From TrEMBL:
Pfam families: GTP-bdg_M, GTP-bdg_N, MMR_HSR1. InterPro entries: G_HFLX_dom, GTP-bd, GTP-bd_M, GTPase_HflX, GTPase_HflX_N, GTPase_HflX_N_sf, P-loop_NTPase. PROSITE patterns: G_HFLX. CDD domains: HflX. This is GTP-binding protein 6 isoform X1. Keywords: Coiled coil, GTP-binding, Magnesium, Metal-binding, Nucleotide-binding. The lineage of its organism: Eukaryota, Metazoa, Chordata, Craniata, Vertebrata. Signal peptide: none annotated.
Length: 375
């Protein structure tokens, strides 16, 4: 049954006839235990009135997503983000409850504050406390990020629509059992980092991120955008797409517009590597676009090609290259390379007192090397 709505902002969402029709239907079906209204936000009085008429709970997009987030929040940071996102809901409930009871102007003895003011103040204090705790965690993450940069591992952020297979792909690329994919929306709510190796044995850090959702309620984006800060500090972005999903094109557009909204540096946005995942579910799949890699993270198809592509992209993005240099074992060259570059392989040639050393080296470091040790 499809019924049209009036402007979703109007009090009862539906016209009178449709509303009665729906009420009859819902009241007459005991198997309906709750109703989901696909609007971003429902005003508190609307929710109250619909629930009274239908006798079941009514959810909007915001409360559903919030509920999923609450169920999936595992770390302290994710729980705090959810608590922060809940504040506006509590605030609007408070307003509604107090207006309903007309208790707003009663004063609490001796305090000089009305009941309503006390409630508002407590909520404000709660909000400040959460924001402070989040700020502390953010600083800690900033510190970790600095340490990471010092160790110079390139960082690859894996982004995409929720449930597209980001965590599965990272697990397949790194073998890290800490990455736990699940068939759920927003299974990942925290940014986690997993180390993996590229073909030339260069170590990279993959950052698993929270999935995107189109029309994600605005307040939720704000709470969780902090979680995406790491993306801005990465060297490369991998955009994973579930090409078996009927709305894969819409999902892509939604992810790209969310990425634009994060204010990322242009070179980072321009070098996004697009990966088409779940090709095992689409027999004979071949991507229409060029420069796209088709994989099945679950079955392990196409991962070697992906690793090779990632290596090239990472080297390009970080101004590094892989070189094999002939060095004299007697001199300081080898220890210099160990210090200033990533040594991957050393093949000693005893009769020459030399070695062929394969390194990943930044262009700047290579320039210095040549200056210090002319050929
Ligand atoms: N058939 C098939 N299923 C896959 C593939 N990759 C992932 N999946 C399944 O898709 C579901 C979601 O995978 P996740 O890796 O948790 O997806 P995610 O993008 O991390 O999701 P969120 O963290 O919720 O945003 C799981 O049930 C996976 O097993 C694939 O290549 N083929
Ligand atoms: Mg995930």
């Amino acid at each position: 049954m499809v019924v049209s709505t009036k402007a979703p902002s109007s009090r009862l969402v539906f016209g009178k006839g449709n509303f009665e029709h729906l009420t009859e239907k819902i009241r007459g079906s005991p198997e309906i235990t709750s109703v989901f209204l696909n609007v971003e936000r429902m005003a508190a009085p609307t929710k109250k009135e619909l629930e009274a008429a239908w006798g079941v709970e009514v959810f909007d997009r915001f409360t559903i997503v919030l509920h999923i987030f609450r169920c999936n929040a595992r770390t302290r940071e994710a729980r705090l983000q959810v608590a922060l996102a809940e504040i506006p809901v509590l605030r609007s409930n408070l307003k509604n409850d107090l207006d309903g009871r007309r208790g707003g102007s009663r004063y609490i003895m001796g305090s000089g504050e009305s009941f309503k003011q006390v409630q508002r103040r407590l909520l404000k204090e709660k909000e400040i406390k959460i924001r402070k705790a989040l700020e502390k965690l953010r600083k800690k993450r900033h510190l970790l990020r600095k340490q990471r940069t010092r160790r110079e591992f390139p960082v690859v952020s894996v982004v995409g629509y929720t449930n597209c297979g980001k965590t599965t792909l990272i697990k397949a690329l790194t073998g890290d059992v800490a990455a736990q994919p699940r068939d759920q929306l927003f299974a990942t709510l925290d940014v986690t980092t997993h180390a993996g190796t590229l073909p030339s044995s260069l170590t990279v850090l993959y950052v698993d991120t929270i999935g995107f959702l189109s029309q994600l309620p605005h307040d939720l984006i704000e709470s969780f955008s902090a979680t995406l800060e790491d993306v801005a500090h990465s060297d490369l972005i991998v955009h994973v797409r579930d090409v078996s999903h009927p709305e894969t094109e819409l999902q892509k557009a939604s992810v790209l517009s969310a990425l634009q909204g994060l204010g990322l540096p242009t070179p980072l946005l321009d070098s996004v590597v697009e990966v088409h995942n779940k090709v095992d579910l689409v027999p004979g799949y071949s991507p229409a676009e060029p420069n796209v890699l088709a994989v099945s993270a679950l079955l392990g198809y196409g991962l070697e090609e992906l690793r090779a592509e990632l290596e090239e992209a990472v080297l390009r993005a970080t101004g590094r290259r892989v070189l094999t240099l002939r060095v004299h074992l007697a001199g300081a060259q080898l220890s210099w390379l160990y210090k200033e570059a990533t040594v991957q392989q050393v093949d000693v040639i005893p009769e020459d007192g030399a070695a062929d050393v394969t390194v990943t080296i930044s262009n700047a470091a290579y320039g210095k090397f040549r200056k210090l040790f002319p050929e």
